[in-house]
Amino acid sequence: MPEATANIGVVGLAVMGSNLARNLASREGNTVAVYNRSRAKTDELLTEHPEAGFVPAFSYDEFAASLTVPRTAVIMVKAGAGTDAVIDELVKVFEPGDIIVDGGNALFTDTIRREKAVRDTGINFVGMGVSGGEEGALLGPSLMPGGSDESWVTLGPILRSIAAVAEGEPCVTHVGHDGAGHFVKMVHNGIEYADMQLIAEAYDLIRRGTGKTPAEIADVFAQWNEGELNSYLIEITAEVLRAQDAATGAPLVDVIVDQAGAKGTGGWTVQTAIDLGVPVSGIAEAVFARSVSSHPEQRAVAANLPGPVDELRVDDAEAFIEDVRLALFASKIVAYSQGFDEIRAGAAQYGWTIDLGAVAKIWRGGCIIRAQFLNRISDAYAEVPDLQVLLTAPYFVDALQRAQDAWRRIVAQAAAAGIPSPAFSSSLAYYDGLRADRLPAALIQGQRDFFGAHTYRRVDREGTFHTLWSGDRSEITAEDTH
Ligand SMILES: NC(=O)c1ccc[n+]([C@@H]2O[C@H](COP(=O)([O-])OP(=O)(O)OC[C@H]3O[C@@H](n4cnc5c(N)ncnc54)[C@H](OP(=O)(O)O)[C@@H]3O)[C@@H](O)[C@H]2O)c1
Description:
Blueprint (H helix, E strand, L loop, with lengths): L7 E4 L3 H11 L6 E4 L3 H10 L6 E2 L3 H6 L6 E4 L5 H13 L5 E4 L5 H12 L4 E8 L1 H7 L2 E4 L3 H14 L2 E2 L2 E2 L9 H31 L3 H11 L7 H11 L9 H4 L9 H12 L4 H13 L2 H7 L14 H34 L5 H7 L11 H10 L10 H24 L4 H14 L5 H12 L12 E3 L7 E3 L5
Parallel strand pairs: 1-2, 1-4, 2-3, 4-5, 5-6
Antiparallel strand pairs: 6-7, 8-9, 10-11
Helix pairs in contact: 1-6, 8-12, 8-13, 8-15, 9-10, 12-13, 12-15, 13-19, 15-18, 15-19, 16-17
The protein binds NADP nicotinamide-adenine-dinucleotide phosphate.
């Protein structure tokens, strides 16, 4: 058996695990034990990175023996059954007080279940969201750990040392207990879906409205990246639009099949929001827009459906592009507001104390949705920690005031020209729904009472009422049946 020399270990040495292990090994004071189910990945990592001084293990017993107490292991394996399989093995060789961290993309309810099961053995289990892809894992990810306060004492310094740094602060915070970290990572991914869809709609409108080439539109995005939209996603959009296909010389974006894939976390965000009763319509439209794109058979049979006669005609390209920019900014505010709403609701439902401002801060570096704008979100929560609706913070109200006319023009122009802009338009509908004095939900309650005796409340009196629709249509008080 090896001597206990490593202060942290990584299980699962595919791209994410090996990069995270290298990141850990590169930081002062860390010695990293590594283990992978099949030996080849371990051998490869050791050969390619002798500088890391890894302590290899070829069985779980060896892995446990190579770790100092409290043993701390980060699992980076295929989420799902793989994670359960590794936890089962680690629990056999670890002892009470040791720490198992799952850095995979686990569904937060699985993390809650695993935390409960592992806690019974006296071992700490921490579900940790890791954002930033391969490069983030290697150079500095945004980290969203959940789990117990006890495990944070050991993990905090290690995670702070490997996380991305934004404005001098490491992009990691103890998000909350058990599944809180994976919940927040899930919503992060949902917001990422919305942000990407909004950018794609902006590109499409500019291209169809102004006839600019992808390379010219790349310049527009590069310019936007200098202002309030400054973010990683805007930056890489310019790069993708500027890329040329080596084989054909065409813009790369024109030779890529227009069907967007998904790994499921956007869908989880929407499903969870539905369970919590939180309207994340911008995120939902982004998820569904990918799904519309990925049904070529349906798109083929629908291709000849009638559309408007007139195409989008833009007289003043510069003014139009500025309108699109403002529509994008306003819709983005809605997407983030909805995402933070879901985190608030999740925290209330699962009993987590989540500092929303701290979440905004740890997303400023390392992760895919990193953006300057997140500072404004943390400012908003610093001022009013229990802010009900993020977009009602003064900075966002000003921005929406500035953007709303342009936003409305863009949604109207897109609809008139038959250009799909589901995320722009649903964000605007949500905004108008929120600020409406009175919604037609009253009519829906009337309909529900008509066919299902679901009852309604009145604006002028306390109580719950039902109209005897199939009788004499008089009103009676009734038990609230929702
Ligand atoms: N890729 C990203 O950008 C990204 C970003 C954030 C989070 N993540 C998450 O990070 C985790 C790792 O991602 P990845 O792309 O590096 O790898 P992956 O392709 O998701 O998983 C491959 C790794 O899982 C191991 N594995 C699978 N089933 C196992 C089992 N039953 N028992 C033990 N090990 C098992 C494999 O071992 P073998 O070599 O023996 O097959 C291999 O090391 C995933 O949960 C992923 O969702 C990925």
